[in-house]
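Protocol step 6 of 9: fold each sequence in the batch and record its structure tokens directly after the sequence line. For illustration, a two-sequence batch is reproduced in full.

Sequence one:
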Amino acid sequence: MTVQNRISVSFNDEQYIVLERLSAHTHKPKAELIRMMVGEFLRENPDRFRRKTPTGLKRKTNIVLPDKPND
């Protein structure tokens, strides 16, 4: 059976050591920590990956993430 919604990420050695320590400290798997970090980043920076448009359109709601996280 194939797995959907899977992504591969790469870390250098220093970043991986930090992630390993954080995982041990919080007792959470590294994958869960990465999901949390990406989610928080996108909530705080919703326009980070949007292209600049000449109209200067600003969205009032974040269409990338829902208003309330499904925790």
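Sequence two, same batch, same settings:
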Amino acid sequence: MLILSRKTGETVVIDGRIRVKVIRVEGDVVKIGIEAPSEVSVHRQEVYDEIQKNNREAATQGHPEVPRLPKKHGQKNFSPAISNS
């Protein structure tokens, strides 16, 4: 882990694309601003942990069976035509 000291208004640059700026210090709370490309997800740790937990739960749950509609009398099986147009 890299540990840096920054004053209010100073910035840290990560990978040339992400900027973390110290906005304000109020007692033991530090307000930071983060500028990152839209394809980079930025979350508070507790939000990230919840997302990961939900993803794990969704991946391990069985998929519910899709209900089948009853066939009507005289109805034949339908096979959609495959078209390469």
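Proceed to step 7 once all outputs are recorded. Observation for sequence two: Residues 11-56 form one domain.
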